Amino acid sequence: MQSAIGDIAHKAEVAISGAMESNKKIAEIKHDYRNPKDGALLTSDFGVKNPTHDNWLSATTEDRKGPALLEDNLAREKVMKFDHERIPERVVHARGVGAFGTFKLYESAEDVTSAGVLTDTSRTTPVFMRFSTVLGSRGSSDTVRDVRGFAIKFYTDEGNWDIVGNDIPVFFIQDAIKFPDVIHAGKPEPDTEIPQAQSAHNNFWDFQFLHSESTHMFMWAMSDRGIPRSLRMMQGFGVNTFTLVNAQGVRSFVKFHFTPTLGVHSLVWDEALKISGQDPDFHRKDLYNAIEKGAYPKWKFGIQVCPESKQDDFDFDILDATKVWPEDLLPVRYIGELELNRNVDEFFTQTEQVAFCTAHLVPGIGFSDDPLLQGRNFSYFDTQLSRLGVNWQEIPINRPVCPVMNHHRDGQKRHAIQKGKFNYWPNRASVFPPAKASEGGYIDFPEKVVAMKKRMHSAKFSEHFKQPQLFYNSLSDIEKAHLTAALSFELDHCDDPIVYNNMAQRLCDISLDLAQAVAEKTGAPKPTKATTPNHNRKVKGLSQFDFSREAQRLPPTIATRTVAIIIADGFNLVEYEAVKTALSAAGAFPVTIGPRRQPVIPSSGGKGVTPDHHFEGARSTLFDSVYIPGGEHVSTLQKQGRVVHWVREAFGHCKAIGATGDAVKLVQTACNIDGMVYSTGDVLDSYGVVTAAGVGKPESLKEGLKMMKGAKHFL
Ligand code: HDD
């Protein structure tokens, strides 16, 4: 017997031809599309052709408008539908953006798991991914300081597998029962609903102090990881400890890792603050544009495996989600690649209605006794009931691509029509018999459990400072400085001295230098003694510089970086075109900025170039780099406050700046750089400023671009 869902999926598949056929999920979703290009006329929700978008039926005469009539069911339908458009936003991770993609395995992990998705290297598994911030509402800004959600739904041949992770590998709490507290403390305060999408307030930091297991995660959140440059340039982590079981029934513990091939990059805080106002959709636009331009973001997928025999070998509990597994103890093995390559067609039906659940696993992958994970397994299913209703699994984006066969029935908004007499088991026709292991049934690992029923964790859960110290020690000096500044900013926004005094004390458990620097800025008494001595150990794999392209043995790249090219009337067209072409050829995204979005005429005359934005329509903060060609326009640009500020601000944010010909002087003045030597192809590496006398010599341009790619902040 085949269910209606199976029927629909099959029919839709047949209808889609060519390459689309290989992606079953795309095929399944396709059949629900309403395509405005069909040329169809306006109808009511029930298919009756509707004669108006505009006029409510009313008792009207030629010269006087009369009362609207309740009998207008078409108008009532329109307004009533609108009245009920909203569903509850996610209680956390409300603001997000999603995209479709694929997952491919290049090395089988059959030594540790029997899961098809992790062993079959010939498969292409369709995925849907949603990135999010945690604390803000659906309409908040993208570049706030926060943890980023990193949730992936793998539509595998054996059912849906969800990894509901973050861009930070640890969590604030060890036990799921505390989740409402940590989130209440972080969200806007209950009396004033202030602040929006910010951890910079009394309640958040009060909780952090009173709850020392959070220390490790707040250190990560205050580091540059909290303000990513792009969702395409962040790592992703499954965070919780899962298990893998191989065909021989041997179980291991596992952590999941995703490392972006573009490297891990962040904004600086001043940029993040400004972009929040200048373009609150900065991250979602960046993702959308990259996918539309075919620059598909990719992540290497890795597993960190701990054999069961080693479970007790470490000074931390491997089931404690506030701890990383340091890579010198358990290396990451990269075995696959995730790529995002298709934007959604409609935000609500796809990105808003997608529902992830940590309990969605496939045979060969299992839970562990991680107490955070166990609670999550309940919460995700439960929250969908109020957000999407009991039949949320039938919403197209949430449906698996394999057949669904069971005796679950009815409930609100049930769509599947299940034929046949039987809605119970056992039944006399043996409809939907259970699947044996040999038939692909999900078999729970037969684990022997001997324990006392108690509200407690193993002893190792009580140690909270060794790993935050390890994290801090492993950062570069720049990252440490940024972290110190971030803590100082956050605590400056706390006006209750108990809160910032306590936090200055807490930092003495990490580093006395850090505690003193933050105390001085925020007005807390300056601590004189480390409460917990720092062990001075470091490890690779915690600083984000360890995930630069160089660290991944990939050459530096300017690909997908946005470069603002600033021009005014009288610019040098040859230089403009040469650099723009070279940038595009290198995969960068050049954007022209001029005095108006009307043709700007070069010194050589002609039709001119129409800029993408005018000087007041965009800001330096929205771009990775700036280039100014030479030409007569320099005298105009020098008098433009916005342009001079643009260059100066880009310089202050350590961006690569390029100038040719007369524009070199403008950069020199704007940035007030003493002692710069201007000759063809000079690069002041520490500044990231690249200049050339002109682009007459192709060699110097090539050299300049090479140096621009290598400029420090692209690392
Ligand atoms: Fe959670 C959403 C990540 C702990 C309860 N969580 C949610 C999302 C992400 C995470 C990425 C957004 C999913 C989406 O895009 O729809 N959450 C995590 C991580 C955690 C974590 C990495 C720790 C390892 N979460 C956690 C706990 C609980 C929840 C301990 C409850 C006990 N999380 C939820 C939720 C949400 C959610 C309330 C809100 C919307 C949703 O689930 O679907 O159920």
UniProtKB/TrEMBL annotation:
<dbReference type="GO" id="GO:0006979">
    <property type="term" value="P:response to oxidative stress"/>
</dbReference>
<dbReference type="GO" id="GO:0042744">
    <property type="term" value="P:hydrogen peroxide catabolic process"/>
</dbReference>
<dbReference type="GO" id="GO:0020037">
    <property type="term" value="F:heme binding"/>
</dbReference>
<feature type="active site">
    <location>
        <position position="166"/>
    </location>
</feature>
<dbReference type="InterPro" id="IPR041399">
    <property type="entry name" value="Catalase_large_C"/>
</dbReference>
<comment type="similarity">
    <text>Belongs to the catalase family.</text>
</comment>
<dbReference type="Pfam" id="PF00199">
    <property type="entry name" value="Catalase"/>
</dbReference>
<feature type="active site">
    <location>
        <position position="93"/>
    </location>
</feature>
<keyword id="KW-0479">Metal-binding</keyword>
<protein>
    <recommendedName>
        <fullName>Catalase</fullName>
        <ecNumber>1.11.1.6</ecNumber>
    </recommendedName>
</protein>
<keyword id="KW-0575">Peroxidase</keyword>
<dbReference type="InterPro" id="IPR018028">
    <property type="entry name" value="Catalase"/>
</dbReference>
<feature type="domain" description="Catalase core">
    <location>
        <begin position="43"/>
        <end position="433"/>
    </location>
</feature>
<dbReference type="InterPro" id="IPR010582">
    <property type="entry name" value="Catalase_immune_responsive"/>
</dbReference>
<dbReference type="InterPro" id="IPR043156">
    <property type="entry name" value="Catalase_clade2_helical"/>
</dbReference>
<dbReference type="GO" id="GO:0046872">
    <property type="term" value="F:metal ion binding"/>
</dbReference>
<dbReference type="InterPro" id="IPR029062">
    <property type="entry name" value="Class_I_gatase-like"/>
</dbReference>
<dbReference type="InterPro" id="IPR020835">
    <property type="entry name" value="Catalase_sf"/>
</dbReference>
<keyword id="KW-0408">Iron</keyword>
<dbReference type="InterPro" id="IPR011614">
    <property type="entry name" value="Catalase_core"/>
</dbReference>
<dbReference type="Pfam" id="PF18011">
    <property type="entry name" value="Catalase_C"/>
</dbReference>
<keyword id="KW-0560">Oxidoreductase</keyword>
<dbReference type="GO" id="GO:0005829">
    <property type="term" value="C:cytosol"/>
</dbReference>
<dbReference type="InterPro" id="IPR002226">
    <property type="entry name" value="Catalase_haem_BS"/>
</dbReference>
<keyword id="KW-0349">Heme</keyword>
<dbReference type="GO" id="GO:0004096">
    <property type="term" value="F:catalase activity"/>
</dbReference>
<dbReference type="Pfam" id="PF06628">
    <property type="entry name" value="Catalase-rel"/>
</dbReference>
<feature type="binding site" description="axial binding residue">
    <location>
        <position position="380"/>
    </location>
    <ligand>
        <name>heme</name>
    </ligand>
</feature>
<comment type="function">
    <text>Occurs in almost all aerobically respiring organisms and serves to protect cells from the toxic effects of hydrogen peroxide.</text>
</comment>
<dbReference type="InterPro" id="IPR024712">
    <property type="entry name" value="Catalase_clade2"/>
</dbReference>
<keyword id="KW-0376">Hydrogen peroxide</keyword>
